[in-house]
Input
Amino acid sequence: MNTLEKSRARRDRAEGVSRGKMPRYGKNGSARSRWRIIPMTLGFLIILIGLCIAAVHIPALLYRDEQVSGQTAYTIRPDETGVRNLLEYVRDHPGDDFDSDGLINSEETAYGTDPRNPDSDGDGVSDYAEIYLYNTRPVEKDSQLESVMAERLDALGIRYSDPWKVHDVVLWADDLSSRSRGTLIPTLRGYRFTSFSGWTQFPGTVYAYRMQDGCHIPLEYREAENAWRVDAADQDVEVILYAEKLPAARLLTAFGSRYFMEDGTVSAILDLVLPEAHSFLTCREIVLQDLEDLEIYATVTGTEMPDTDRTDLSRFGECTNEFSSLTDVYSSVLSGRPVPVSLQSPSGGEVLCLVYGFTEYGDLLIADSAGKTTDASGNPWMLEIIERAAITIDQNGEIRQREYFDFEGLGFSSARGDKIHFIPAE
Ligand SMILES: [Ca+2]
Ligand SMILES: [Ca+2]
Ligand SMILES: [Ca+2]
Output
């Protein structure tokens, strides 16, 4: 192309002329620019793509987790005299301190606190410390723990962002609240974190996941620091550790149909542009193990109820929900001895039954006093166990880690104030 042809080509392009094609002219005779057409087409395309993206992502944005209400029916009929026994036993022992928090039962009744829970409102300050050390309300959560912790860290010259260690795990908190309340407890599969958001480092070489809706979700990882991201500020997170990354593929769902894709460019792009769930088009990484029918292994022993003295009402004065009591129950089952247990609800009454086994996740298998182990549909009676840790200021103003467990099952739930007491062998 010589110089003349080049400049003509430039002019033609400017006027919207292409070779062999008639230019189009407007009313005033000047060539109509194609620049007005291109933005329209482009605009239309952008709107179309935008609509597609919105259509795929809006259902996921609007999705809200529905709280599924727990099982409420008592599957083993409770003894209703337990309600009266429970109330009377506390009333008949006004000078005792059932939960060893420094407040005697009559004081607990007067302040409206729970005589079998050292921190009734669960805000990390024991009932006694709220009343006698800080003058805060023992039945209403407050942020006294953060204030006390901030003062103590200051005095020691420690910043909240400095790392610290709990059970061999190194923690770096995002904020003062995570530094004050954040903690963890070992579980049979890894660790459960409470009130903590930040980075963590586990002993040894591990690959860390959390479970969500029965699926393994890998934690975010920073290689330079060998640190894993944990977000458990609002909700406890159980981190499950493996020696290496679990084999995975990508799961694409389209209008209810599921397709598996090997790792590759296409699957990586789809993973990037599509939401992970709650839409008619989704794509996410999935651990192959999550697709298999899960078999849960359990350790069991005999189901014959040992002699227990039902007239001994002292079981209504104790709540053995300390973590150490749970590990004692596991050891007892392992050595072939089932453990009688009393489940108590202030409104429903008492079920006196037997722990005859536990699953690999730590849940307890329950038999009734006749040795029956399943409900009418053949499902095993089970108490789901959730290991808990909480940073708590005790009656001496000391900051301690409290390790206990929550339970849920057979119509009982510690979250609703129900109690558990393992009865020692005669
Ligand atoms: Ca007490
Ligand atoms: Ca409290
Ligand atoms: Ca309080």
